[in-house]
Amino acid sequence: MMIRGYEIGARLIAYIVGGVLIVALLIFGVHYCEKTRSQAAQARVERSQAEATANSAADAINTVTGVGSNQAASEELGRANERDIRAAQGAGDRIGAGVNAAGRAALCKRAAYLNDPKCKGVRP
What we know:
The chain has 2 helices and 2 strands; from the N terminus they run ββαα. It is mainly α and 124 residues long. A hairpin with a 2-residue loop joins β1 and β2.
């Protein structure tokens, strides 16, 4: 075969075409492996982010639950203290109006007594 005045053998053309194909296959293979590795890494990151989000949500729920139970326990303690004070010896004795108002105002500041009829009109 003659190209621009040079004779090129069919075998040489086959080697060149084969070499180009091998280089193209190598480039494609490297690109495919890199793409696959990148996708796998992205999937791991997304999975880790999803787990972190789930863990954060669980922590938030536990925190809210803990705060609610602490508040309920605090309110129950306030009620128990009131019962103990009212049941104590001398609880029915007359006390000064200022002491009574201060004690009632202190109790009415607590969430457990906000709707208590005795706290209506009392300024906390």
